[in-house]
Amino acid sequence: MRKNLVAGNWKMNMTLQDGLALVSEITNMVQDEVTGSAVEVVICPPFPFLASIGKQLPTGGQFHLGAQNCHQKESGAFTGEVSAKMLQSVGAEYVILGHSERRQYFREDDELLSQKLKAALAAGLKPIFCVGESLETREADETFDYISKQLKDGLFHLSNEEFDQVVIAYEPIWAIGTGKTATSAQAQEVHAFIREQIARAYDAEAALSTTILYGGSANAQNARELFSQPDVDGGLIGGAALKSRDFTEIIKSF
Ligand SMILES: O=C[C@H](O)COP(=O)(O)O
């Protein structure tokens, strides 16, 4: 179901104590300040903090817990890994998959991501599936072909019912952590293209009901302009999700 959504990806930052303090500040600020329209907020801390952060989130409301990754198998001898079912058992509702940092530093390819998607969905988690082009790809004018391939190979193998659970995040790699945000027109152009691809792979209804987030140096200053685009339903936020005031401003940007 399409909705306004802001997800904070803490990446490998914070201690548990810092994280608890941050969440308490954010939930207080959001509750104190009336937000414009309904927005779902997903907090994605590192694995060790999930249970504690989850307990600190107000229940039954707009706050939800998400993880940053999961293993593709349900259980077994995979030392150091974390399964989707484990995440679900500590209260996670979402899991980020296919983030460009996972693709780049951990060599996660479309085949592996397809398996992870299946594992997440089987455990009842909602995947936030990331796609996005490098600067080189954009400059070679190959952005649309690249995104289309990522969607086809990584995501469009899902059934209609499975796809219904997925949130897509468009994150141009050149904008992540660089302070160089895509313009709202650039974001809108790719988001509209993604919706077109969904309509082709599934149907028009699926295209219209998919939540598509923008990620890449989104902040309190540019969020309103980005979120005002017709096909931008919210953001996957990195750096600015680590600061309570900035993150709260972003949540209020609809
Ligand atoms: O998952 C979040 C994105 O990678 C964006 O990170 P950023 O907001 O620090 O650019």
From TrEMBL:
<feature type="binding site">
    <location>
        <position position="177"/>
    </location>
    <ligand>
        <name>substrate</name>
    </ligand>
</feature>
<comment type="similarity">
    <text>Belongs to the triosephosphate isomerase family.</text>
</comment>
<dbReference type="InterPro" id="IPR020861">
    <property type="entry name" value="Triosephosphate_isomerase_AS"/>
</dbReference>
<keyword id="KW-0312">Gluconeogenesis</keyword>
<comment type="function">
    <text>Involved in the gluconeogenesis. Catalyzes stereospecifically the conversion of dihydroxyacetone phosphate (DHAP) to D-glyceraldehyde-3-phosphate (G3P).</text>
</comment>
<keyword id="KW-0324">Glycolysis</keyword>
<feature type="binding site">
    <location>
        <begin position="9"/>
        <end position="11"/>
    </location>
    <ligand>
        <name>substrate</name>
    </ligand>
</feature>
<keyword id="KW-0963">Cytoplasm</keyword>
<protein>
    <recommendedName>
        <fullName>Triosephosphate isomerase</fullName>
        <ecNumber>5.3.1.1</ecNumber>
    </recommendedName>
</protein>
<dbReference type="Pfam" id="PF00121">
    <property type="entry name" value="TIM"/>
</dbReference>
<feature type="active site" description="Proton acceptor">
    <location>
        <position position="171"/>
    </location>
</feature>
<dbReference type="InterPro" id="IPR013785">
    <property type="entry name" value="Aldolase_TIM"/>
</dbReference>
<dbReference type="GO" id="GO:0004807">
    <property type="term" value="F:triose-phosphate isomerase activity"/>
</dbReference>
<dbReference type="InterPro" id="IPR035990">
    <property type="entry name" value="TIM_sf"/>
</dbReference>
<comment type="pathway">
    <text>Carbohydrate degradation; glycolysis; D-glyceraldehyde 3-phosphate from glycerone phosphate: step 1/1.</text>
</comment>
<feature type="active site" description="Electrophile">
    <location>
        <position position="99"/>
    </location>
</feature>
<dbReference type="InterPro" id="IPR000652">
    <property type="entry name" value="Triosephosphate_isomerase"/>
</dbReference>
<keyword id="KW-0413">Isomerase</keyword>
<comment type="subunit">
    <text>Homodimer.</text>
</comment>
<feature type="binding site">
    <location>
        <begin position="238"/>
        <end position="239"/>
    </location>
    <ligand>
        <name>substrate</name>
    </ligand>
</feature>
<comment type="pathway">
    <text>Carbohydrate biosynthesis; gluconeogenesis.</text>
</comment>
<feature type="binding site">
    <location>
        <position position="217"/>
    </location>
    <ligand>
        <name>substrate</name>
    </ligand>
</feature>
<dbReference type="InterPro" id="IPR022896">
    <property type="entry name" value="TrioseP_Isoase_bac/euk"/>
</dbReference>
